[in-house]
Every structure is written in structure tokens, then in C-alpha cells.
Amino acid sequence: MLCRAALLPSLRSSGQFWRQTDVAGSHPCLLAPNLVLRNESARGWSNIPFITVPLSRTHGKSFAHRSELKHAKRIVVKLGSAVVTRGDECGLALGRLASIVEQVSMLQNQGREMMIVTSGAVAFGKQRLRHEILLSQSVRQALHSGQNQLKDMAIPVLEARACAAAGQSGLMALYEAMFTQYSICAAQILVTNLDFHDEQKRRNLNGTLHELLRMNIVPIINTNDAVVPPPEPNSDLQGVISVKDNDSLAARLAVEMKTDLLIVLSDVEGLFDSPPGSDDAKLIDIFYPGDQQSVTFGTKSRVGMGGMEAKVKAALWALQGGTSVVIANGTHPKISGHVITDIVEGKKVGTFFSEVKPAGPTVEQQAEMARTGGRSLAALQPEQRAEIIYHLADLLTDQREEILQANKKDLEEAEHKGRLALPLLKRLSLSTSKLNSLAIGLRQIAASSQDSVGRVLRRTRVAKDLELEQVTVPIGVLLVIFESRPDCLPQVSALAIASGNGLLLKGGKEASHSNQILHHLTQEALSMHGVKDAVQLVNTREEVEDLCRLDKLIDLIIPRGSSQLVRDIQKSARGIPVMGHSEGICHVYVDLEASVEKVTRIVRDSKCEYPAACNALETLLIHRDLLRTPIFDQIIDMLRVEQVKVHAGPKFASYLTFSPSEVKSLRTEYGDLECCIEVVDSAQDAIEHIHKYGSSHTDVIITENEKTGEMEVENGIEV
Fold this sequence. Notes:
The chain is of the alpha/beta class. It has three domains: 66-137 and 158-230 and 241-353, 3-Layer(aba) Sandwich (Carbamate kinase), CATH 3.40.1160; 363-572, Aldehyde Dehydrogenase, Chain A, domain 1; 587-715, Aldehyde Dehydrogenase, Chain A, domain 2 (3-Layer(aba) Sandwich). Helices cover 40% and strands 16% of the residues. The protein has 25 helices and 21 strands. The strands form four sheets. It has a nine-stranded mixed sheet with strand order 2-5-6-4-3-7-9-10-8, with helices on both faces. The chain is elongated, with a radius of gyration of 34 Å. It starts with a strand and ends in a 5-residue tail after the last helix.
């Protein structure tokens, strides 16, 4: 059974923003690293379409689900001040910046069109100017100050515009050098809020960006913080967001350029439902328009010009303009090295902004419901849990027609799409006999579940009148991931119910109709004692890898499927134990003293009855002295009649003049009407073969010799 033995600050949101500035320059040279804009009416850009961006305008729908982000072609990455700068705000975080450039380059080389909105000029310039000030101190002052006093020498407060002027060229040179390592050219564009209020400058900006993208150049957009114009009127109410900071600049550019995705990197993981760092704080996975009423915004970050409220405002504006948005942490050392690529791959990183709100609960909410329901389930009497399982078994037979009809839909869709191999189609298929067998199995679980929870395993007297007991208790919330086997759902549900565990189920989409009705029947059975929520079926488009990251909500993961599925989940699980299983490379050994009547019946049943099962025969081992005997001929004739494709092992092939196709590997799980036949010299040889090539799943010896059988049993083989 699925039990374990047990003994009785304030919200500091990140908003890295640009100062509002002015710029003057010349028409950009596309090969130069630094680009600025000037209103050049003589040149005229009449051939460049002018884009007006009211709130109601959409250049296309934003992505509804994270999994669709992999299709993003044009992407803007906004790097806030806290991401680009060091903790002391004097200089750049070079390692972090190099990692970001590497990720952007990787996506650019995949054929995407990448743009960067960056901070960092002020911090880089501050570092340079402080260095210059120290160097400019007179030698006499340095000599008379003494070593300790020199260290404490006061540095005057540096004006931000001067820092920007000193740091702009160095920042761009750094980007240029980093992108060059990946054979990518980068070009800088300086903009201000005034550029978005001037129609001709907007046309120039739009045309320049399109031309750079056409030439496979990464535009690096920055504000010219060396000059600061008077604040422009806030035009948000007119349907156009004002460029007051980095985030609004990135949102404005994203919509202007019809961008598919805007990634806003900050120094927090995303949006939280309460102050980050507090005990109850939970990351908001998906944020919908209208949800901002339920969020409390805090102060701005240690650097930058704004806060999370401005960030959300810019993200929602971009979302309404047709651009998908993700706000994520770009400073965390464990994820910053792949945060951008993870987002584009659709992984659960940061907060994803979506206009499509699912009708049901999120997977996090389902896990919480399963935990609460599981605790109520564990509090029931053993007889009550058994009643639930008995009732579920009855429902499987009573609702047989509805179940088979739903399963028929799954089979028809799978056959129409042609995405499932024949073994998987067989696993997907349900039948009256399967449902009857399921019901019988569930009743057996119910009958044996009386002492699953609360059984005393060990009792130790520690001192007088003090005893220590080891008692079975539920594990908590189980996540069971299974492929195209809908019959797995009631089996696992019954085990979870018997052991008082909450259950989160993730089935294959090819069995969606079957899983839905089986889950409905499971919850109907649970409702008889008011614990309906204890078993939850994940219907959202959650990736398995994302589910494996819910370490605060899930206590154990159990994958039911191929060995590749098990390996993938073991690799993806972070901080959650995985109860994996081995491959189903099962052997049947026909001993020299085997019964003729038993052999063909056992081999037929183990291979042909349900070849897709994990305990089906995959390798048939035959004693060499049985070759060219009636018993061997009967086995071959039976396999031929059952249309089993035979592969010859190396030794077996050496005995034949014209042999079947030789097996590529003796460690093959066919899962179909296929098997390997190999020859062994003795029972001991068979044992060694099984230990070398088997998976310790299910292995059988057919013999009438009691001594040989005992030897097999000692080696863990059924007789």
C-alpha cells in the first residue's frame, strides 16, 4: 500500500525603469554599433507603414497557454537595472550579462528575431567616473592622507546624466564584444518619450528596427539618459502608454513591432499573492486582466525608476496589444543561465500573462484540494474507505456502456491522427472483460485494506511507561503520471483511497475521454463519504516537467509507463522522491524437464493474451537439447498461429541455416506480438542470462524438476 512508516519582509518588488530623456542624432548607419534617431523629413519614410497603437488595436491574438510560446518568432527581452548591474550598483554583472547574451544568441540562431531593451549605462558610467575621480586625486593628497584615510576618501555624488554619458559607449562595446562570440551583430538605438510623440520619429524607429531584424542584427534599445527633457503629459488615458520607464518602453516597442513575446527580467520570480518571502507567499503562475485588484504592490527595487505596479501595467497594455508577456527572475544564480530559453520552451518560469482564463482550478489549487481531501480520507474508518472502493468497483460494471463509448472516441481519434503505435493502441483500448477484471481487482484491494493505515509495525519500550511505536501513515499527495492506459486510473485511485493518500493524476491526452469518465466515477464513489476532492485529474495543459517542480505540494511521484518516461521524470523531479519501475524485459525459460502440456499454454498466455502489458513475455529461453524436438515444434507452431514475430538470439541463430531476423539487443521490451528466442545450455545458464539482460520484473521457469525449481526460486524467479 501507498503508506510510509513514521514516528508518533515587506514586499520588495522589482521595477527597473528608464529615466525620461531626449535624444538627437542622425539617421542610423546599419553597420555602426550606436544608432540614434533624427527627424529627417527630407529623406521621407513614406514606404514604411506607420503604426498607431490604441488599446483596442490587436495585431493578432496573444498566446493563450505557455506551451504555445515555443512558436514565438519575434521576442523582446527587457533587462532591468537590478538584472544588469552588480549589487553595489557600480558596474555590470558581467557573468549574468554573458549568460543572457548566450541565450539570446541561441534563440537568434534558431531563426527568431530578438530585441533587447537594456539598462546599465548609468551603473557602468558610475563605475568609470568613480575610477577617474580616484585617479585624479593629487599625489600630495594621497601621500598626506595615509593608507586608511585614502580608503575612506569621500566620493562626490555623481549626477546620473553624466554617468549615462560616460557609460553608454562602454555598455554597447561590451554587448558588441559578447555577441561577436556567437557571430551575431548587434546595433544600438537610443530613444526617448518624445520620439513616440513625434510621428516622423516613430516612422524612423519602426523602419530602422525592421531593417535591422531583416539583416539578422539584434537591436539593443536604450534611452539616452545623458539628457532629460521635461515630462510629457501622461497619455495612458488616450489609449497609448507613456514611455516613463524601462517597462513601458519595452511594452511600447513590443506592440509597435508586433512582437509575439515580451520577457521582462526582474530581481523577483514574478508576481506573488502576498509579499515575497512571507510564509504564505505563493507565486502567481498565470495572471489575467482584472486580477490586479487582488494584488498589493510594494516599493520599487534597489535600482531603477519604478515598481511592480508599473511593470504589471505595462505588461497588461502589451497583452491587450496582442503581445504575450512573462515576468521572471533574471538574477537567481540557479535559473538565470537558462531563464530565457526556458520561457520560450514553455516551461513554468515566472508569471505568464494570459487573456484566456481556464474554467477549472489551476494545478496548484488541485494539489491543495487533493491534500485537504486526502487528510479527510485518512480520517475515515477503514470500513468507510473500503466502502468507497467497493462502490467504485460497482460503478465500473454498472456504467460499462458509458465507459466503453468514451473509450471508443479516444480510439477513433488516435487512429484518425495516427500518432499511436499498435502496442499503445492496445493499451488504450478498454473492453467488457477488462472492466470486469478491474472490478475484481478493486474488490480485492478493498478486502485487504482494513489495516493499511494505522498498523503498528514495531513497538519499542524506551523507558518505564514510555513506548515508541512505528505506525503506517499516509504519504500525503501522490502524483501519478501514466501514458495511454485508462485502466490505470481506477487501479491507482483505489490504492490511494485504501492508504488514505491524496491523489493527483496526469494521464495521456490520447485517453482524455476515458480518463474523464473514470475520474467522474471515482469522485462519485468518494462523495458517499464527503471526500470527493481527494482524487484530482489534471486537465490543464501542464507539462510533466512543470508538475515535477511542485515540491511544496507533492510528496511522491509515481510514473506508470515506458522506461523513457521514468527516466525523464527522475531527471525532472526537483526535491520530490520518484518511485520508478524497471523495464518489463520478462523471460520464460523452458527447462529440459518441462511438461509438454504446460509449455504451450504458459507461453501463449504470457505473450499473446496481453502483449502490451509490462509483465508480458519478451525473451523465450529454451534448453538446447529441446531443439528439433516435438515440444519445440509445438511452441513454434503456436507462435506462428498467433502471428508472433520471432527474433533469433545469437546462439539460436547459430543453430539455424535460415534463421529469423537476428535480435539487435537482448534487452528489448517489444510490447507487441514480437519476442526473442534464445538457446541456453542449462538452468544455471538461463539464470545468468536473466540476471544479465533482464529487468527483475517478471521471470518464469517451466520445469517438473523440484531441485531445479528450488534453484530458480532462490534466484528470485517464479516456477
